[in-house]
Structure formats: C-alpha cells, structure tokens
Design the sequence.
C-alpha cells in the first residue's frame, strides 16, 4: 500500500507538474510581456512576483494533495502590509515553494543559492523577478539591492543556513540578511518548516506522502532587536526557530 | 608573548565581541561550524583581534586559511614572533 501511494503520488504530481507548467509558464510569460507593453517596470515586476506566488501555490498545495498536505499556522495575523524579512529553516528543495504560504499576501523575492538560477525556465523567471543569488554578489551589492527592494515595499525571503540540513537540525546561520535588517530596520519574521525532509529528500526527486507544517511566528520589530550586534541577532533568531521547530516535532 | 596569554586574550575576544560562552572555546573548535561565525563575522573578528593584540592582520592572506580556534592561536603567535624580529 505504501509503495502504491508513493508511485501514485509521484506519477500524478510530476505529470500534472509538467502539464501545468507547460500551460502556466508560457501564459505567465505572455501576460508579463503584455503588461510590459503598457505598464511601468515596477508594476510589471509586482505582477510577475504575484504570479510566481500563485504558480507556487498550485505546485505545492494543490498538485500533491491529498497525499502531501500543508498545515499553515500564522501567529501574526495583524502586522500590517510589510515589507518583511522572512527567515526560514531549510530542509528540502520544496522550501522555496512552501514560502508561498506566509508570503501569499505580499510582493516578495527570495535570496537563493546558485543552483535555482540554473533550473531551466524557472531559473530565468526567478532572475527576471529579481531573485538574488547571494553567493554571486559581494555583500555591499547585496545590501544595496535588498535595501532598495525593501524601500519599494518588496519583502525578502531568506534561508540563512544557505544549504539544506542533512540531519534536520537547524544549521549555523549566515549573517548577511541580519546586517540588512539592522541597516533597514525592517521587521524579521521567523518561519519554521517541519515534515518536508522527505518531500523530496536530499539527492532525490521522489516525493513521499506526509504532512508539512509551517509556522509563521510573530514579527520581531527593529525596536526589539536593534540593540543587538549582527552575530548576536542571527543567533537570537536561530534560537527562536530551533525552539519552535522542536515544539512542532514534539510528539503530542 | 606567552602561549597561555594568547589563548586567554583570543578567548576574551570571542566572549566580548561575540558573546560565545567560554566552554565552547576549545582549540579544535571550528570557527564556522562549531562557533557559528560567517565570512562577514570574520571581518569583525579581525578588527577585534587587531585591537586586542595591537597588530595589523587585515591584509594578511594567511587569515583565509584559518579554520579552528587553534589556528588563530598559532597565527597570532606567528604574527607576534614576526613582529619581534
């Protein structure tokens, strides 16, 4: 039965993934090109980023359902329109798609490693949408670009571990985004993800049935963290995420 | 400079600048994986070490090879010895 479920999940998911992408991506491309003909660049980018979020929502919440379910809890219901700096733990290549849950209402970009930019088509779309490949730009450029985006009202999603955790433990954080937060004084929103370590596991494209839990915690306003040094701040946020992940994984 | 002084002063830099507890400061501790520093923190570390030991190490290429706390002790010892020549 377990193997049947696994086979069914992967055949249906990847089949519909390809069909949906073949329809959605050219459709999205045409829509953006049409928008670019009549709208200013800023508005085109806003629409493109929103479209990416809706594309991701279908991919992660609808296509694998009901064998993969996403349970999303928002502990910060009324914190305004942002922009925010979303900081999440990182276990699986599905994490960037899962960010559509906390970011559904916001215009946002993601800070990614080098490899997502190498994905066919999706990598190009991410580049056009202004996603940032943190390892390919010096910190000064990263600071300038993220500051500009935040000023424009664009939220930023970051996985400060930089790479997926191999043992589910939350790895050490890189501090670049926390220096940006201290500079721009924007609220930091910790995001905790559990249950997706096998959706898919590292080194595999096979999705396993399961329940993914995502908790969006209360935002940390600058008034709360502004006194901290960058090193202390990143570890402060890391500890918040570690504690919440532990609570999420505790047997009921 | 005595080895024990270098170890004590280097550890002080880690506790004062990064608030890392003393029990984590072991010679074989990897400054990235175990102590959690990143490439940007290294810049702050270099500044703090320069201030503490009154040396100039900012442009020293050997900083790039440092991985453990023990590497820092040895590096400072080397810099101090070179400075006394």
Sequence:
């Amino acid at each position: 039965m377990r193997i049947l479920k696994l086979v069914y999940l992967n055949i249906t998911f990847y089949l519909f993934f390809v069909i949906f992408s073949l329809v959605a991506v050219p459709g999205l491309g045409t829509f953006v090109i049409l928008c670019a003909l009549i709208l200013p660049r800023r508005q085109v980018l806003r629409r493109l980023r929103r479209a990416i979020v809706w594309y991701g929502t279908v991919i992660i919440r609808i296509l694998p359902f009901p064998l993969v379910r996403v349970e999303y809890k928002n502990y910060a219901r009324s914190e305004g329109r942002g922009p925010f700096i979303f900081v999440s733990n990182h276990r699986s290549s599905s994490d960037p798609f899962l960010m559509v849950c906390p970011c559904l209402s916001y215009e946002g970009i993601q800070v990614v490693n080098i490899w997502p930019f190498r994905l066919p088509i999706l990598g190009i779309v991410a580049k056009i949408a202004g996603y940032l490949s943190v390892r390919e730009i010096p910190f000064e450029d990263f600071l300038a670009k993220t500051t500009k985006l935040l000023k424009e009202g664009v939220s930023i999603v970051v996985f400060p571990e930089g790479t997926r955790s191999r043992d589910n433990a939350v790895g050490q954080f890189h501090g670049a985004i926390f220096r940006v937060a201290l500079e721009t004084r924007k609220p930091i929103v910790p995001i905790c993800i559990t249950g997706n370590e096998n959706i898919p596991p590292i080194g595999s494209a096979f999705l396993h049935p399961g329940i993914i839990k995502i908790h969006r915690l209360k935002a940390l306003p600058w008034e709360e963290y502004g006194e901290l040094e960058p090193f202390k701040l990143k570890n402060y946020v890391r500890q918040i995420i570690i504690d919440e992940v532990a609570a999420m994984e505790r047997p009921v | 400079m005595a080895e024990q002084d270098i170890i004590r002063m280097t550890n002080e830099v880690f506790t004062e600048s990064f608030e890392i507890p003393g029990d984590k400061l072991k010679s074989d501790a990897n400054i990235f994986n175990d102590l959690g520093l990143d490439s940007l923190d290294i810049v702050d570390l270099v500044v703090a070490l320069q201030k503490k030991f009154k040396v100039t190490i900012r442009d020293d290429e050997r900083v790039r090879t440092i991985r453990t706390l023990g590497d820092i002790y040895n590096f400072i010892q080397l810099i101090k010895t070179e400075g006394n020549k």
Summary: The first helix of chain B runs from residue 3 to 18. The two ends of chain B are 13 Å apart (CA to CA). Chain B touches chain A through twelve residues (CB under 8 Å). Helices of chain B lie at 3-18, 39-53, 69-84.
